[in-house]
């Protein structure tokens, strides 16, 4: 299992310059063995140098113990090993020090220079010692053996620790690089997860807003007409039974249409739940994408029922006229087909505007204008002042205050322009322009 950079930093609990306690114990053990070795080698060195043996032993112990600081000052350890090479001391310190030097993150020229000095010093000392042994008769080989022994001995004591140190250093740097990349990938994954969660939450909010807007458009207009017809039915029930029957039939038709549209909306919601379950089973990074796609495609998947279109606009106006509204529809330009979302948005704008007339200006003369232009479609619903200001309240139509907001969101969402406000004559005007593409 690969540890991350933070876990690696928390693992650095050793004393002084050691990263771990086991590293300190290892260096202490190596320094102890090196000190014993140098101390033992200090005895013949003292005899050859003509100094007291105790001095040679103390010198060897001090020189060998330098290996304790090999991780902190590897150059100093190698220099000490080179310095005591003529005394035939510190073989372990030279090998370990050279390995540590090669494994450190030092410039290559320094490593090569110190390795060359070690190689040259070992070669010279070995050459001198072997030549002296042959002069004393300890070795009876030919003259070729002196350079051969010096070269092989110096290479044997220098090349293996140097190559091993270079390999370990390169591997250590590779592991550090991989650890940094793992940390970076972990941070990126966390960022992607956070962004995916934010996108999923945004998609859920958008879907809730869309559903609320659709429910408002589906229910508000039909129910408003039903309330208007019910009020008219109550007024003429005894005076004009035939008109009352007609109004009752209209109320029934409106109720059935409202139930049909609600049923269609529930079918869309069930399709959206299926999409949500598929997104929940996907990886976390795909949740935001799946939710966003569900928000934009839920109305079209699995054969969901399409929304209203502009060809139904005349029927919509006729329903308002049947409810007693004096409404006039005019269409300009060449009638043509648009994208489904464009036609649905245009229809909903006119529908909501007529609903607001029923709520707030019952009985007012209303004009519905639709203009087919080259690159856009424009619509306008304008009503005059109500003949009886109290008529709207008499019908008792509640208002949630979200109709204009929903219309603006629909139009702006398609890149169009929406304007609404009172007129100078005391009425109200709703205008919208939607790009055809």
Automatic annotation (TrEMBL):
Coiled coil feature spans: 168-206
CDD domains for this protein: HATPase_UhpB-NarQ-NarX-like
Top-level division of the source organism's lineage: Bacteria
Transmembrane segments: 49-69, 75-98, 110-128, 148-170
Positions of the Signal transduction histidine kinase subgroup 3 dimerisation and phosphoacceptor domain: 207-272
Gene Ontology CC terms, in alphabetical order: membrane
The protein's Enzyme Commission number: 2.7.13.3
Enzymatic reactions: ATP + protein L-histidine = ADP + protein N-phospho-L-histidine
Enzyme superclass (EC): transferase
Keywords: ATP-binding, Coiled coil, Kinase, Membrane, Nucleotide-binding, Phosphoprotein, Transferase, Transmembrane, Transmembrane helix, Two-component regulatory system
Pfam families, A to Z: HisKA_3 (PF07730)
GO MF, any single term: ATP binding
UniProt-recorded name of the protein: histidine kinase
